[in-house]
Amino acid sequence: MKLFITGLNHRTAPVEVREKVAFPAANIEEALRGLLAQSGVEEGVILSTCNRVEVAVAGECDGKAVVEKFLAVARNVPETQISEHLYHYQGREAIRHLFRVASSLDSMVVGEPQILGQLKDAYTAAKNSGTLNGFLDGLLTRAFSVAKRVRSETEIGQNAVSVSYAAVELAREIFGKLQGHAILLIGAGKMSELAARHLHRAGAERIFVTNRTRERADQVAAIFNGTVVPYENFQASLTQVDIVITSSGAPHYILTRDQMKSVLQQRKNKPIFLIDIAVPRNIDPAINKLDNAFLYDIDDLGRVVEQNRVSRQQEAEEAERIIEEEVEKMVARLREREVAPTIVRLQEQLEAIRSGELDRLRGRLGNLTTQQEEALDALTKGMMAKVAHGAIAEVRKQASRGDATVIDTIRRIFRIPE
Amino acid sequence: MQESSVFWLRVAAVLYSVGLLHTLFTLLSRRTQLLSVALSSFVVAVILHLVSLVEMTRSLGHLPVENFYQSVSLCAFFIALVFLFVWWRYQFVPLALFLFPLVFLMTLVGSMQSPVAGWTSPRLREGWLFAHVLAVLTGYAALLLTAGASFFYLIRERQLKNKQPVKLFEHLPPLGTLDKIITNSLGITFLFITSGVIAGLTWAFIESGTRWISDARIHVALITWVLCLVAVFLRNTAGWRGRKAAFLSLALMGCAAVTWAAHIGLRPLLMER
Question: What Rg value do the Cα atoms of chain B yield, rounded?
Answer without folding.
Answer: 20
